[in-house]
Amino acid sequence: MYQYENLGDKTLTERVADNIISYIVDHKLKPGDKLPNEFHLAETFCVGRSTIREVIKSLSSKGILEVRRGAGTFVCERSEQKNDPLGLSLISDRYKLALDLLSVRLMIEPEIASHAAENATKEDIEALRIQCEKVEQKIKEGQDHIEEDIKYHACIAKCSKNLVVETLVPMINSSVAMFGNITHRKLLPETILTHRQVFEAISNHDSAGAKYAMTMHLLYNRNMITQLKKEFESEQS
Length: 237
Description:
Elements lengths: L11 H15 L11 H7 L4 H13 L3 E4 L3 E4 L18 H26 L2 H19 L5 H14 L3 H5 L1 H14 L5 H16 L3 H30 L1
Antiparallel strand pairs: 1-2
């Protein structure tokens, strides 16, 4: 059932992690429910036990699983999912979820960027410049840039000077991380370009320009995910 010959841009650990999340959803496991033991999971997903241990460690760090010494591995209680406050990680249709999250982001993030351009201080702009360059550096060095990308969007939210907007950052963070995984980092040139355009508009206090640049940034993501969704559905048919 589980084959890993063609991993694409994902590692084996990432693929197995996706499959374990699908397993939790398909078997309707609830927060607090126990997963099968390590040996059974290794057999189910056709990998070694060392891979299962690595996956469990990764999913535990994301607040999806919880290892209780002497008891086993459990689905985390919702309140403990610090990296997934909306509980989105256990939704099985990743493409629909990504597109729905993008729809929400398109409703709010261009406006956040617009307000950031109006309200950002010199200190805010300098912090955003540094964060923008950190994302670019990670991409140019071929390293995982997702964590820095998340911080970049959080920095824009902070520039808006809207306290409510800053509480929405966890949702945006979930979205950014998910897009990075689904698109397999295929939008690196577009990310550099549109991040820089958003920064330039905010630094120039150009609210309309910031709104437009953020919209374009999100639309690039939406178009890529739509294309990958069609390819995935074609492979399944």
